[in-house]
UniProtKB/TrEMBL annotation:
GO terms for cellular component: endoplasmic reticulum membrane. The keyword Transcription regulation does not apply. GO terms for biological process: cellular response to oxidative stress; intracellular protein transport. It holds the Pfam family Glutaredoxin. It comes from Ditylenchus destructor. The chain crosses the membrane at residues 47-66. Residues 170-238 form the Glutaredoxin domain. This is Selenoprotein S (SelS) domain-containing protein.
Length: 266
């Protein structure tokens, strides 16, 4: 109907004479337009609300059920792509880690080989040193062994004491660190005896402590004095420090030195 009205209005706007000619010359055109429009108009009048309801229902179904499903499918596809990307990234990262681990393992093997070579070198050097040492020992064993020297005659302590006492005018058996020994030596030193008449034997300076102990033991038994010093003048035992000082003061030492014809200065 809308098309028909437009068609009629277009005809009315033209020249009236021409309009009449068109209407008279083309009456079928007007009838055809009316026949084309009437079925659509009738359909819309009869089924328009139903069509609108169906469209609304279809839109509801689409947005309520179909669109969420489509969005879910799209989201799942996106997640699968993201997961695939993450898996590829993780695989690349794992490959990098594996390469680094392999590199470290190769470095460890190289260091182990170097350490083994160094250990073998040290073992070889030790074997060479042992071989040289064994060769030296074998050479020493092959040398002719000199005959052992005869052991010197060991003098008995008592004989040693008698020999020393008879060898000098004044003989003092003492110890270097003993204060009493120093007193006795100071008392005798006032006579300014020559070395040929004066002998001091410091028993603690001997290399053989065992031999020195034997001599001391014999002196204790011989004189009855248990500690140093032991002073002898002209082959006679005076005593220890106190007795020696007293004998020097009362003239006993001078008399014994004169009897032995020893030159001294008082």
């Amino acid at each position: 109907m809308l098309i028909h009205s437009r068609y009629l209005s277009s005809i009315s706007l033209e020249d009236p004479v021409e309009s009449r000619q068109l209407l008279t010359s083309h009456p079928s055109r007007l009838r055809m337009s009316e026949t084309e429009i009437n079925p659509v108009h009738e359909f819309l009048q009869k089924y328009g609300w139903y069509a609108l309801t169906v469209v609304i229902f279809l839109l509801y179904i689409y947005y309520k059920f179909i669109k969420p499903r489509v969005d879910s499918v799209r989201m799942q596809a996106q997640l699968r792509r993201q997961k695939k990307f993450d898996e590829d990234l993780a695989a690349a990262h794992q490959a990098d880690i594996e390469r680094a681990r392999q590199l470290l393992h190769e470095q460890y093997l190289e260091q182990a080989r170097e350490a083994q070579l160094k250990q073998e070198e040290r073992r070889r050097r030790k074997q060479e040193e042992h071989a040289l040492e064994a060769e030296k020992v074998s050479r020493l064993e092959q040398r002719p062994v000199a005959a052992p020297k005869p052991a010197p005659n060991v003098v008995e302590p008592l004989d040693f004491i008698h020999a020393k006492v008879q060898s000098k005018a004044v003989v003092i058996f003492c110890k270097s660190w003993c204060a009493f020994s120093r007193r006795a030596r100071q008392a005798i030193s006032r006579f300014r005896l020559k070395d040929e008449n004066y002998l001091i034997i410091e028993l603690d300076e001997w290399k053989s402590e065992k031999q020195a102990e034997k001599v001391q033991s014999e002196l204790r038994s011989l004189t009855g004095n248990k500690s140093s010093p032991w002073v002898f003048v002209n082959g006679k035992y005076i005593g220890s420090a106190d007795e020696t000082v007293a004998a020097c003061r009362n003239g006993t030492v001078e008399d014994w030195l004169r009897d032995a014809n020893v030159e001294f200065f008082s």
